[in-house]
From TrEMBL:
Provenance organism: Cerina litoralis
Pfam families: Metallophos
Protein's UniProt name: Metallophosphoesterase
GO terms assigned for molecular function: hydrolase activity
Superkingdom as given in the UniProt entry: Bacteria
PANTHER family for the chain: METALLOPHOSPHOESTERASE, CALCINEURIN SUPERFAMILY, SERINE_THREONINE-PROTEIN PHOSPHATASE CPPED1
Calcineurin-like phosphoesterase domain: residues covered: 45-245
InterPro entries in alphabetical order: Calcineurin-like_PHP (IPR004843), Metallo-depent_PP-like (IPR029052), STPP_CPPED1 (IPR051918)
Length: 308
């Protein structure tokens, strides 16, 4: 079940007489699998899900990111989930070493500004520098990004207050996809969990999406992954993703799939003729999701557009 209320954002900005509207903006609410009032359920975690930050030196992006962060902090979150594409891009053939180091240096400086929060990140397709002069170069490929993001491995899992979190690496052959090694690991990781365990799975590419129908970008191995999930009807599985810079929600075989927009919108730019608002990508404004996770395995996903 879901309810979506798109904010009349510009009108609100006008009414309030503000150039910048922070938490006053009505969120886009996507409530998964339970429409009971939040007060009837015990909330155990509040998470900020940011994705596609695409940090870059241009367009004042670092300062605009800092302003977003101040808004996010007001939600009193427990930790961050970062859905990948943390930097603008390292993956193009013409990217030089100093461009890669410049982008990650900005990210590290920003990250130091909120180091009191834990952040669990996944790899985005634009994060890796494949054009390094050699595969032995310390900055080549995924290992360097794993270090920059401070994560244990390109895929991993962890537990918090009864919820199990799985972070996947979608960046494999025929992306988005899981490689063989990761498939085996995922199957084992799910098999080990007790019945009833609530699960939140984060990948960069959507495992299943709605916006991927017109725009592409879906996991190419969705059939395999959804069949794995189907073997676990006793568990409550939810998936979040980025990559699309679009907001959508799909439900299939009782699994919820949320594609949570992007923090950078139109890569911090003003947009194009298809942008429904300044800085938007298509009909999705830049923003972040605040996710409330409940003890009974339900969750509520609210997307907060930002206007920076
Ligand atoms: Fe992206």
């Amino acid at each position: 079940m879901k309810t979506i209320h798109y904010p009349k954002r510009r009108l609100l900005i006008k009414q309030l007489g503000l150039g910048v509207v922070a938490s006053a903006v009505t969120p886009v609410t996507i409530a998964a699998n339970d429409v009971r009032n939040s007060n009837e359920r015990k909330k155990v975690l509040r998470i900020a899900n940011i994705t596609d930050v695409h940090i870059r030196p241009e367009l004042n992006a670092p300062n605009r990111f800092k302003k977003c962060l101040e808004d996010i902090k007001k939600h009193e979150i427990d930790f961050f989930l970062n859905g990948g594409d943390t930097i603008l891009a390292a993956d193009y053939n013409d990217i030089k070493r100093n461009r890669v180091t410049d982008q990650w240096a900005i990210w590290q400086e920003l990250r130091n500004g909120f180091s009191e929060y834990k952040m669990y990140s996944c790899l985005g397709n634009h994060d890796m520098w494949w054009a390094a002069p050699s595969k032995n170069d310390s900055m080549y490929g995924k290992d360097y990004v794993v270090k920059q993001l401070g994560i244990p491995k390109r895929y991993y899992s962890f537990d918090k207050v009864g919820w199990h979190f799985i972070v996947l690496d979608s960046n494999n052959e025929n992306a988005g996809s899981l490689d063989y090694e990761q498939r085996i690991w995922l199957e084992n990781d799910l098999d080990k969990l007790p019945a009833g365990t609530p699960i939140l799975i984060m990948s960069h590419y959507p495992i299943l999406g709605v916006s991927t129908i017109p725009y592409g970008g879906n996991h190419t191995d969705s059939k395999y992954i959804t069949k794995i999930f189907y073997k676990h009807p006793d568990k409550k599985i939810n998936c979040i993703s980025g990559h699309m810079h679009l907001l959508d929600n799909a439900v299939y075989n009782n699994v919820n799939y949320f594609c949570n927009g992007s923090l950078s919108g139109f890569w911090w730019g003003e947009g194009d003729k298809e942008s429904a608002g300044k800085g938007w990508y298509q009909e999705t404004p830049p923003g972040y999701a605040i996710m409330d996770l409940f003890e009974d395995g339900t969750l509520q996903n609210n997307y907060y557009p930002h206007s920076y």
